Amino acid sequence: MQKLGEELGVLRKGLSVPRKITHTGINGEDVELSLDPASLSDDGASFSAPRWIIHYSSIEELTVKRDICSFNPQTAFLPMQITSCTTELEDNQDLNWEDRPTISTKGLHGLFQDVVRQWRMSQHHEEIQRVITAAAVPLKLNKVVAFGCGPLTLNSELDDRPMIQHALLLTLQSCLPHGGCYVQDPLYEQADKHVLETFGFHVLDDPEVFLMADEASILLSIRADVPVKQIVASNF
User: Fold this and answer.
1) CB burial class (10 A; 0-12, 13-18, 19+) of residue 166?
2) Cα(196)–Cα(213) distance, integer angstroms
């Protein structure tokens, strides 16, 4: 996984010629795939700009759920592979991001601060603090790691649920005397990253947060679209 992360970093810096990358399958065999920058060409006005990502497959996808029409024997046993992807845009979305209404970083900071303040006055906040403090944990926990808690803004629109989830992370972190909080989400925008960093979050790129998770971590992931438990377990 660490090697794929390093390769992904190279690809995101820009690639002018095809690059061959070795992936290892669950059957123990290595598969060499060629990644071509030509595959990052735009798919049309109804899709966002393409980008390189790591695609994660669950054990169920690799062993049970098979679509014969899209079956590829070369990649059939790869639990993760670097590929390109685009996101389909809604009808009212515009590819010209500069013309879209934006939320200022200062405004976003203030909104998130209000959500954190309200969360800390809630009963849920008190209950979680009580449970974590009273829990008998055999190891000393030293960090909180989270994947896919969502961007504070999505397409320049606010979303309360990710804000509450990040406020929850601050609560978990407060239960650890010297622990840091590490977060990763492929949909974070620059404003999200800046605001989260001002609140003490360490914003990581894929797949760094999975490499951070260990037996001394509190892991939080709510309805992520990747097999988080399987990915973390594979590192032990």
Assistant:
1) buried
2) 19
- Look up residue 105 and give its two tokens: 């970083």
Cα(171)–Cα(174) distance, rounded to whole angstroms?
5
What is the C-alpha R_g of the chain? 20
pLDDT (tens place) for every residue of the chain, 236 residues total: 777 777 777 777 776 677 788 888 888 888 888 777 666 555 554 545 567 788 888 888 888 766 677 777 778 888 888 877 765 555 444 444 444 456 788 989 999 999 999 999 999 999 998 888 888 776 788 899 999 998 887 655 666 889 999 999 999 998 887 789 999 998 888 899 999 999 999 999 888 888 888 888 889 998 888 888 888 887 76
Statement: the pTM of the whole predicted model exceeds 0.90: no
Domains and CATH numbers, the chain: 2-85 (no CATH), 100-233 (3.40.50)
Q: How far apart are CA 151 and CA 141, in angstroms?
A: 26
Q: What is the dihedral of CA 187, 222, 2, 205, to 10 degrees?
A: 30
